[in-house]
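Quick review question:
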């Protein structure tokens, strides 16, 4: 009886703590994210920093501009490139100012895993239910198109080697049979709905088929397709360097946080800590920080802290065995697969719990920075059960100066478990660099994601109801944000589309538009 009473008391105490946590969460969701915090952890990608890191930080601000872009990540850069290049082709010129609160490209773009692997078959059936068959197919094609789009941009900019943009073999690896069987059914449904995807997927099961993955004995199956990997920081800073050189009308000011936006006489005034700029158009490309300046977007785009690491691979990994010689494989028989693969590890009976892994190339491709050593870029989803400490720590958190310690500890040890006996010993490097730690984990950092309440990006003109300020026929506020941790497969084409909208060309896809109807309907609590 005493044991039973103890269990009952423990249950009620757990429920009480859970209720208190959800009450606290509800308050967090309604708060402003504030300004990006100073002195964040330095990500692997920004070691060493770009020459543009503090560009314009000491320069005087202009008093006016045609367009002000708030944010210097991949979305803002995509917009700037498309907008400026298209104007140039038309023989026109607009003054465009990009503002960044900290170093250039210091937000989520420089803090992700460089993983160009979209959610496709995994999400298709749910998309069908939410938006209908034809729109669901367009969304899938939109996501899939990012690998080709980013590869093309890197080539056009002469940044393919510098940004390490490349195609890789990507594997969804399953460690629970029930999840593997469920995902195979989802893939089957997806391929029937989208026959154009046939031939791009391979199901691997059985010891022989799985052996070359060098995963632990617990793995029960995998699903393979093509994906991509990239050094996102180099791509963005490389493009910005070209835009600054090509267009005198384009200005970048780092360490210039925006504190407010005012509106009068048909124009907007962007208030910063270093002065004010009057503008005809404002582009909100600050993702998780959007609702600091667009108050009605609180609870619509919510910050969530994620965690990433760069790790040295185990010495036993890399050799490609006889089977891995398919025509669509990026590795060849007898070579090392290091740098040619990415993984999503589904380690639980819950399909929504996974970790992800991509890699640096094995050989140097640029003189900028240190030689790559096929580092494993390993990150975790919100791994804890809903209501656990990691979940409540992550959601609503904008502190990228620190990490959630249990998550950091988990990331430091999980890879050797995933690869099991194949991991081998711990690798060492002759090259010593004070920027990196000794041991398996070279670098660990956090980053702030912008979680959309309906899991889809927000792209387009902001109605007055959403911006909280007047919108005019020829002048407006615009948004490209809310990528829900999938920025590498949403942000680039979204930024281009927004530029086209401002230039007067209607884009076909409207599901991502920031309409009042969508804004009223989108509720994050429906997803939690």
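Suggested answer, residue by residue:
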């Amino acid at each position: 009886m005493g044991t039973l009473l103890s269990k009952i008391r423990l249950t009620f105490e757990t429920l009480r703590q859970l209720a208190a946590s959800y009450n606290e969460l509800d308050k967090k969701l309604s708060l402003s994210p504030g300004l990006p915090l100073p002195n964040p952890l330095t990500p692997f990608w920004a070691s060493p920093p770009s020459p543009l890191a503090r560009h314009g930080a000491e320069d005087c601000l202009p008093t006016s501009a045609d367009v002000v872009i708030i944010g210097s990540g991949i979305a803002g850069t995509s917009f700037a490139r498309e907008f400026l290049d298209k104007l140039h082709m038309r023989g026109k010129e607009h003054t465009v100012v990009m503002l960044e609160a900290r170093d250039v490209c210091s937000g989520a773009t420089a803090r992700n895993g460089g993983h160009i692997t979209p959610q496709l078959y995994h999400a298709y059936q749910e998309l069908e239910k939410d938006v209908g068959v034809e729109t669901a197919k367009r969304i899938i094609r939109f996501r899939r198109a990012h690998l080709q789009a980013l590869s093309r941009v890197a080539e056009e900019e002469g940044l393919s080697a510098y940004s390490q943009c490349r195609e890789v073999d990507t594997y969804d690896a399953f460690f629970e049979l029930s999840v593997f069987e469920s995902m195979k059914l989802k893939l089957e449904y997806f391929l029937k709905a989208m026959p154009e995807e046939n031939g791009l997927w391979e199901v691997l099961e059985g010891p022989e088929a799985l052996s070359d993955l060098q995963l632990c004995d617990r793995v029960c199956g995998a699903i393979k397709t093509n994906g991509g990997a990239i050094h996102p920081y180099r791509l963005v800073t490389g493009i910005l360097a070209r835009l600054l050189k090509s267009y005198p009308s384009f200005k970048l000011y780092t360490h210039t946080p925006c504190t407010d936006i005012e509106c009068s006489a048909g124009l907007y005034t962007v208030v910063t800590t270093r002065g004010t700029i009057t503008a005809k158009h404002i582009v909100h490309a600050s993702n998780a920080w959007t609702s600091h300046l667009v108050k009605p977007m609180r609870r619509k785009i919510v910050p969530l802290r994620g965690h990433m690491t760069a790790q040295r691979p185990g010495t036993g990994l890399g050799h490609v065995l006889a089977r891995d010689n398919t025509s669509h494989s990026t590795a060849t028989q007898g070579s090392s697969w290091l740098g040619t693969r990415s993984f999503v590890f589904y380690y639980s009976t819950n399909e929504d719990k996974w970790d992800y892994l991509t890699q640096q190339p094995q050989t140097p491709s640029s003189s900028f920075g240190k030689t790559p050593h096929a580092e494993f870029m390993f990150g975790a989803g919100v791994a804890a059960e809903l209501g656990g400490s990691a979940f409540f720590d992550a959601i609503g958190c904008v502190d990228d100066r620190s990490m959630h310690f249990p998550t950091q500890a988990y990331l430091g040890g999980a890879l050797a478990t995933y690869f099991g006996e194949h991991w081998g010993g711990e690798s060492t490097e002759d090259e010593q660099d004070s920027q990196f730690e000794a041991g398996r984990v070279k670098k660990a950092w956090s980053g702030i994601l912008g979680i959309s309440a309906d899991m889809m990006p927000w792209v387009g003109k902001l109605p007055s109801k959403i911006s909280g300020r007047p919108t005019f026929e020829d002048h407006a506020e615009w948004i490209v944000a809310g990528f829900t941790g999938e920025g590498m497969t949403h942000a680039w084409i979204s930024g281009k589309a927004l530029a086209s909208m401002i230039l007067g060309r209607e884009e076909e896809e409207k599901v991502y538009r920031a309409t009042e109807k969508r804004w009223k309907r989108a509720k994050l609590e429906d997803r939690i």
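Why it works: The first strand starts at residue 64 and ends at 70. Confidence is low (pLDDT under 50) at residues 1-15.
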